[in-house]
Amino acid sequence: DGGITQSPKYLFRKEGQNVTLSCEQNLNHDAMYWYRQDPGQGLRLIYYSQIVNDFQKGDIAEGYSVSREKKESFPLTVTSAQKNPTAFYLCASSPLASSTDTQYFGPGTRLTVL
Amino acid sequence: AQSVTQLGSHVSVSEGALVLLRCNYSSSVPPYLFWYVQYPNQGLQLLLKYTTGATLVKGINGFEAEFKKSETSFHLTKPSAHMSDAAEYFCAVSKNSGNTPLVFGKGTRLSVIA
After folding, report:
1. I want to staple A25 with a disulfide (CB 3.0 to 4.6 A). Which of A10, A82, A93, B60 is the partner?
2. CA B83 to CA B78: how far, in whole Å?
3. What is the DSSP letter of A80?
4. Chain B residues with CB inside 8 Å of A43's CB?
5. CA-nearest residue of chain A to B100?
6. Tens digits of per-residue pLDDT, A16-58?
7. Residue A99 confidence (pLDDT)
8. For chain B, how far is it from start to end, CA to CA, in angstroms?
9. Whole-angstrom Cα distance, residue B20 to residue A110?
10. End-to-end C-alpha distance for chain A, whole angstroms
């Protein structure tokens, strides 16, 4: 089955810890995205990547970091600098980074800071 | 800059009644427009999208939306609501030039009453 997988589904973090959220796709898509979802806030773009070894900041990149060493993988690290990391994180991909492309979403990771 | 406004964070309809979810956009260039649906604790799924051509777009699960440039709107409708339509719905916009990520509205939660 082709699709996007995110792991883990639930993640708990202590304050001051860095955590990494996994996102893998086997759709052969060039572009990948990370969004943060908070209740009543919609989806806000954290980072996106249009090609391997290149990525751009989105609207709320502070306190987050990413890498794109392989086409199929786009992990997100939530650092201790992110002051309010508790949220639902969604990864997406699209065939090319074209404006008409449909973005396909993974099932999400719910991060809770204890 | 593009933006999306979804009127009504929560809409409640009776089963069998018309569903109308409102979306207005702001864009300096002709937009591409999308509607996505999200079921609890899941990722987003594309319902439909408008890029060019016919302004009335039909999507999955009986939903459709009409692009009205003069009103800068892209409202989502379904003639008869079903219990399974209860979910959160997101409108999104992208520019029709370059490779730009989507900008999402804050979402509308649809409840269907038996």
Report:
1. A93
2. 13
3. T
4. 44, 90, 104
5. A99
6. 899 999 999 999 999 999 999 998 889 999 999 999 999 999 9
7. 66
8. 41
9. 30
10. 35
